[in-house]
Amino acid sequence: MANKNTYKLIEEIRSGSEKPLLELYARYRNEFIVWSQAKYKVRKELAQDVFQESLFEFYQNIISGRLTELVSNEKTYIFQIGKFKIINSIKKESRITYIENLQMIKGKEFEEFMQVEDQNYSNEQIKAAISKLPEDCQKVLKLYYFDEFDMESIAENMGYKNADTAKSKKSTCMKKLVIELKKLSMIFVF
Amino acid sequence: MDQLTQHIELFEAYQAKLLDESAILEFEARLNSDSEFRKAYQDFLSIEEGLKRHYKNEFFNQLKDLDQELDKELGKTKKYSVKKLIVYTTSIAASFLIFFFGYSYFQSQDHVEIAKEYWPIEPGLPVKMSTRGRYDEAMNAYKLGEFDKANSLLDKISSDTSIYFQGVIAYELNDFRSSRGFFNQIEKGSLYFNNAQFRLGLILLSEGDLISAKRIFNTQTIENNLFAKESKEILKKI
Fold first, then answer.
1. pLDDT in tens, A125-168
2. pLDDT tens track for B207-228
């Protein structure tokens, strides 16, 4: 059964704090690598990536409200996610056929490669544009797009009058971001 | 981009499902008919995706910053695990060997004790005062515990009696190998055969040759000789 500590952990993560996630990563990452290498004979790099993805999924499940309490402890939950990710990864790797003289990009790398091909703005452009925004805008956008806060929670977190103020602020920040991206696009073009 | 900046609130409202039904229909119709509007919306979605990706990468980068430190610990853990494995394996092997040798030692000690326990006391041949026999001098030396003297006197006599007593003396001197050699020379027709065989069995038992010892003791019980009872007891014990 979930104890007080797991409730506290979930609450802390839901409030937008990344500290407990980093602590969980430091606490269980090596154990997960050793465990998955012993059990599934996977490479260390894959085990490490899987653990990062698992922790991220754990985080997303909390902020999206899908995970409100734990039947077991957080370690069991994250390891369970990781276990299925490894099994899927092994299955996926076994399905890939290698064409002669063509080095195919597998798994996560392949997906990332495809994403880069599809996206209009590169990671560098987005990063550069965000860095040009005022601090409060950076925070509002992160609360909305990473922490998945609703406008009411953003208002509460940022000390705004109400959700409408937060909504208006977010729109303003997006406009500023678009302007910065436009500037950067021109720099990249010319 | 102008269209995008201009319509950001509308795009956000559509995304957040804040538009009413007619506004949604109008929005979607415009998406189908107005290519610039559609392009602006696609840009908006692309920026949103870019933001999500950026924050996810930022999060993963924080984890990667921790990796270097954790890798050092992992190396130590692995080295420690290998060391631990070696220590455990060595300990188990050592324990096994200690147990094995201990067990063997105590078993062999047990067998030596059994051999000593069942070793028949050989009083020696009677020496008569009235007549002088060929073994008298050797027997006197034997009875006085002067084994070297008895041995050299017996060595001069060629008989199964002499061989038998030399075997007994060699045993008393803890020279099991020689003792075995003497008792092995006693042939089946000799009066000393069963006695020599029983003693041979005890020597083999002391030396840890259980198979040969058991074979001799089994023969002793079958033939129902002088040492049949003792042989049965010894067989039960070993």
1. 999 999 999 999 999 999 999 988 899 999 999 999 999 999 99
2. 888 889 998 888 888 766 788 8
Residue closest to B150 by CA, chosen among B168, B132, B128, B126: B168
- Backbone phi and psi for residue A161, each to the nearest 5 degrees, phi listed first: -60, -50
Q: How long a stretch of residues is chain B? A: 238
Structure tokens belonging to residue A69: 């309490």
| Dist CA B162 CA B168 (whole Å) | 10
What are all long-range contacts of B108-112, with beta carbons under 8 Å and residues at least 24 apart?
B108/B208, B111/B205, B111/B206, B111/B208, B111/B210, B111/B238, B112/B205, B112/B206
Question: Chain A residues with CB inside 8 Å of B62's CB?
Answer: 18, 22
Residues counted in chain A:
190
Structure tokens of B122?
Answer: 């050989």
Residue B42: list chain A partners with CB under 8 A: 120
Chain A nearest-CA distance from B52, in A, is 6
Which pLDDT value is given to residue A113?
Answer: 47
Residue B174 has what DSSP assignment? T
Provide the pLDDT for residue A110.
Answer: 47
- Please list every residue in chain B whose beta carbon sits closer than 8 Å to the beta carbon of residue A30: 70, 73-74, 77
* Contact of B14 with B27, CB cutoff 8 Å: yes
Q: How far is B56 from chain A (nearest CA, A)?
A: 7
* pTM across the whole model: 0.55
The answer for B145, left when phi > 0, alpha when psi is -120 to 50, beta otherwise, is left
* Separation of alpha carbons B100 and A159, rounded Å: 76
CB atoms within 10 A of CB B196: 23
Tokens of A123: 């990671």
The least confident of A1-5, B100-104, B178-182 is A1-5
Find, among A19, A29, A4, A13, the residue nearest to A67 by Cα.
A13
CB atoms within 10 A of CB A7: 13
CA distance B53 to A166: 22
- Give the one of B49, B54, B78 whose C-beta lies nearest to A127's C-beta: B54
pLDDT at A118: 52
| Alpha-carbon distances of B232 from B113, B195, B224, B238, rounded to whole Å | 16, 15, 10, 10
